[in-house]
Design brief:
The complex is a heterodimer of chains A (about 325) and B (about 400).
Chain A (H helix, E strand, L loop, with lengths): L3 H9 L4 H22 L9 H11 L10 H20 L14 H22 L3 H32 L4 H10 L3 H4 L1 H14 L11 H4 L9 H26 L12 H29 L5 H31 L2
Chain B lengths: L2 E6 L11 E7 L2 E8 L7 H6 L3 H9 L6 H16 L5 H29 L3 H22 L8 E2 L2 E2 L5 H27 L1 H7 L7 H6 L4 H6 L6 H4 L20 H24 L17 E9 L2 E9 L5 E7 L1 H13 L7 H7 L4 H4 L4 E3 L4 E3 L3 H9 L7
Antiparallel strand pairs in B: 1-2, 2-3, 4-5, 6-7, 7-8, 9-10
Helix pairs in contact in B: 2-3, 3-4, 4-5, 4-11, 4-13, 5-6, 6-11, 7-11
The chains are: A mainly alpha (about 325), B alpha+beta (about 400).
Chain lengths: ~325, ~400
């Protein structure tokens, strides 16, 4: 990243934040539309997520009695900033110019922040539904985070690097990790669904039990920004899974001119994130919400166990084949 | 975590009707709960005493939206028995058809609600779409989706034409197929099994002790259905089976309801195919002789009881309605203890509560304007001391 103008364009316009917001809203629309069609409904029009966002920005912000409104204002922004930063390290058009050794760990850390913000919001709301929702969201975090992290670290283990972009390059030379590590891929998808708090893991915001969980007292722009955070997380999460397991925006052949390779890479990114979204939407439509104790059983008995088995398999493969 | 009180309702997304639970939870476990039902006392029983029988029937329909036909039939049936008039066969069959269509749409609606409270919105959308076929049939027959206004004292108000019978019969095969799919889903769909099985268990003994009725009782293995045990309308002529289940949990109640939809479909088909010819009503006298009657009816939610006392005029002296939800409430309060907080909505929904229909009484201190509850002992003591002035 030598030219500062290029860097600014990359971060703020394309494929940076401007594109990120647009794509997040498009994915939110597609998610709702796919679910609606599967449920034999009509679904929302194309601009609905955008209209919702603008409408909520303009709505009155209500402070619950006894709540520190300063923290209440800032917390959603922190969550949004965290996932936006995470996005910069994920390869979109070719490799990210900001990539460095260890950006995978940074991305995983930044993607956990919205959950902690939700807990904080629930705790600060002084509302019993929010508090229970907040506690549920961190309880859930402790359950899915371990298998999710292990699943996302196995590609790094095999590629021998902690940089997402280098993992993508490794896949370009060898093979997609979805074929090499199918168990990790499945766990990553399940973990992503849990991280985004979508059915069957919408336990923290179960509307028929605890109204909206930590979201209950959010109004106006706080709610708009928190909603946008989840939409952006969906982009970052699916882009991360696409990069780590589906080869990211790379093709195994060299294409000239270079700009054409970039265009192809971008469309590959779109196709792969949409494929991930389709899987996530299908899971959402095909299931109901499970209980937190059931999630605990599933998470620690099966998901954590399976991911440790996958780590073992990867170590054996490394020893016998990759680094032999 | 220390014990905290979660106050659910009267305004809550899981509750479509006004009720309040004060649930004391320890973490996710329910320790105990208090129940407050009377948010919507509408004075229907008192209003029924002011009107003649013809005008009471529309009022009775408005006790409940979902089982409107149940209430008007229970009342009409009681009054007809007091007047000692026998309504024509064709009227009996038409009443039965509407009653069973009502049961079908009520149970399909319930299945959707039960799916919704566990977050399984796909099934919710599907059942409510298929329920429209039943609603369309009812609308064609009566002109209305909810308050059918089919009953009058002495028969029914509208006849079924041959065309209506044909279109209704044409709708049934598709509906039957969809219901088969739901039966299959209830028994095999993992997401429903893990949330329904073993949740809100009521043993046979407990079901009897707490006086549960309808699908809630039948799911605990109590073989009791007014339609068979005290036959009315055309149920004695129609071949059908009482559905029971031995699971006793929410899963059992779901199975009973979805199989009852199948049985209802069979009854509707039989009645439509064997609809007798003849008049649809007989002239009824204006006044009913002095007397008392207990009219029982198997509503979708269970045994519905109308107690009617007449005094020789064209108005009732007293009508008392015992809705099935009231009979089932105590069992809910009992089986919620020691369950998970997350299971409250599904256990409550499992009795298919109809709350506004249940609010029959409100205690009001006329001096302090305070409302409240009263124990049975207190009520008996006050009655014996003849201190009726204030409660």
């Amino acid at each position: 990243m030598t030219d500062p103008v290029f860097g600014l364009i990359y971060i703020f316009i394309f494929p940076g934040f401007l594109f990120l917001f647009a794509y997040a809203l498009v994915l939110a629309f597609l998610d709702r539309k796919i679910a609606a069609r599967m449920q034999q409904r009509v679904g929302p029009p194309f601009f609905q997520p955008f209209a919702d966002f603008i409408k909520m920005l303009g709505k009155e912000v209500i402070d619950p009695a006894g709540v520190d409104s300063g923290i209440f204002d800032v917390a959603p922004l922190v969550a949004l900033a965290a996932v936006m930063t995470a996005y910069l390290y994920v390869p979109i058009v070719g490799n990210s110019p900001l990539a460095f050794q260890g950006d995978l760990v940074v991305v995983l850390y930044l993607m956990s922040l919205p959950t902690l913000v939700l807990f904080l919001l629930g705790w600060l709301s002084r509302n019993i539904f929010s508090a229970i929702g907040g506690i549920r969201s961190v309880t859930q975090l402790f359950i899915y985070e371990v298998p999710f992290f292990l699943a996302l670290l196995t590609p790094a283990l095999m590629a021998g690097t902690w940089s997402i972009s280098e993992i993508v390059v490794w896949q370009q030379k060898n093979m997609w990790f979805v074929f090499l590590q199918p168990i990790s891929f499945i766990i990553a998808l399940i973990g992503l669904q849990a991280k985004l708090e979508r059915t069957p893991f919408d336990i923290p915001e179960a509307e028929t039990e605890i109204v909206a969980g930590p979201w209950t007292e959010l109004t106006g722009r706080r709610l708009a920004i928190m909603d946008l955070t989840i939409d952006v997380s969906l982009v970052v999460g699916s882009a991360l899974v696409a990069a780590l397991f589906l080869g990211g925006p790379m093709i195994p052949w060299a294409v000239t001119p270079a700009w054409l390779e970039g265009v192809i890479g971008f469309f590959l990114f779109l196709a792969k994130t949409l494929a991930v979204l389709l899987v996530l939407s299908s899971i959402e439509v095909a299931t109901g919400r499970i209980r937190i104790d059931q999630l605990n059983d599933i998470g620690w008995k099966y998901l954590a166990g399976a991911s440790i088995v996958q780590v073992g398999i990867v170590l054996v493969m490394n020893y016998l084949w990759v680094y032999a | 975590m220390p014990e905290v009180v979660v106050s659910i309702g009267p305004h809550h997304p899981a509750l479509k009707e006004p009720v309040n639970f004060k649930v004391v939870v320890d973490g996710e476990k329910i320790v105990r709960l208090e129940l407050d039902l009377s948010y919507n006392h509408r004075g229907i029983e008192k209003a029924a005493e002011q009107r003649d029988f013809i005008r009471v029937l529309p009022l009775m329909e408005r006790v409940c939206g979902i089982c409107s036909h149940s209430h008007s039939t229970a009342f009409a049936k009681g009054i007809e028995e007091l007047m000692q008039i026998e309504i024509p066969q064709r009227a009996q069959y038409i009443r039965t058809i509407i009653a069973e269509l009502e049961r079908m749409h009520s149970h399909l609606l319930w299945l959707g609600v039960a799916a919704h409270v566990i977050g399984f919105n796909t099934l919710f959308m599907w059942t409510w779409r298929d329920r429209e076929a039943v609603q369309d049939t009812v609308e064609e027959m009566s002109g209305n989706r909810v308050h059918y206004a089919m009953n009058e004292v002495g028969g029914v108000r509208r006849d079924l034409t041959a065309a209506q019978v044909t279109t209704a019969l044409e709708r049934l095969p598709n509906l039957e197929e969809r219901i088969k799919k739901y039966v299959d889903m209830v028994n095999t769909e993992e997401t429903m099994l893990i949330r329904f099985r073993g949740v809100g268990k009521i043993s046979r003994e407990e079901a009897l002790r707490y006086g549960t009725v309808g699908p809630t009782a039948r799911a605990s293995g109590i073989d009791y259905d007014i339609r068979r045990d005290d036959p009315y309308l055309a149920y004695a002529d129609v071949p059908w089976n009482v559905v029971t289940d031995t699971n006793g949990d929410v899963y059992g109640r779901t199975r009973v309801r979805i199989w009852e939809v199948q049985e209802s479909l069979k009854i509707v088909r039989y009645c439509l195919e064997n609809l007798p010819e003849g008049p649809i009503h007989v002239p009824a006298p204006k006044n009913a002789p002095k007397g008392e009657i207990l009219s029982r009816y198997e509503a979708p939610r269970g045994e519905l009881v109308h107690f009617i006392r007449t005094n020789g005029t064209d108005k009732v002296e007293r009508v008392d309605i015992r809705t099935p939800t009231l009979a089932n409430w105590t069992s809910v309060a009992m089986c919620l203890v020691n369950q998970n907080l997350a299971d409250i909505p599904v256990i409550v929904a499992a009795i298919d509560p109809c709350l506004s229909c249940t609010s029959r009484i409100t205690l009001l201190d006329i001096h302090t304007k305070k409302t409240g509850v009263m124990s049975l002992d207190e009520l008996i003591r006050r009655n014996r001391s003849r201190d009726h002035g204030q409660v």
